[in-house]
Amino acid sequence: QVQLVESGGGLVQAGGSLRLSCAASGSISSFRAMGWYRQAPGKQRELVTVITSGGRTSYADSVKGRFTISRDNAKNTVYLQMNNLNAEDTAVYYCSVNGLAATGWRDYWGQGTQVTVTS
Question: Is residue 8 within 8 Å of 78, Cβ to Cβ?
Fold first, then answer.
């Protein structure tokens, strides 16, 4: 069984910062890409950022220069540092990892953490 546990969401004023964490545990022997998605009310889930096993990163245009993704492979954890938040960043944030289990490579998802930015 594989679990992704997210933490760090909450309520913040515009211009503020939050740091999300997502720790993976269970029967995964290796990870490839790790990323963060978000879904705002009434909108589709969108990719925010992703980091490869080699450390390459990519970001949605809307968050470039404000968000930073990082990972700690020893802890099987991915982080999302979010700075200069604005109301458009309000959403449920989900982490996703591509991991190798007994049945092969597949994507796993966290339960989501709410981020609310007030103006």
Answer: no
Using an 8 Å Cβ cutoff, are 26 and 92 in contact? no
Strand partners, 34: 51, 97
> How far is it, in rounded angstroms, from Cα 77 to Cα 30?
12
pLDDT in tens, 14-34: 999 999 999 998 888 889 999
Angle at 33 between CA 80 and CA 102, to 5 degrees: 125
User: Could you report the per-residue pLDDT of 60-92, keeping only the tens digit for each?
Assistant: 999 999 999 999 999 999 999 999 999 999 999
Distances in Å between the alpha carbon of 26 and those of 23, 49, 102? 10, 24, 11
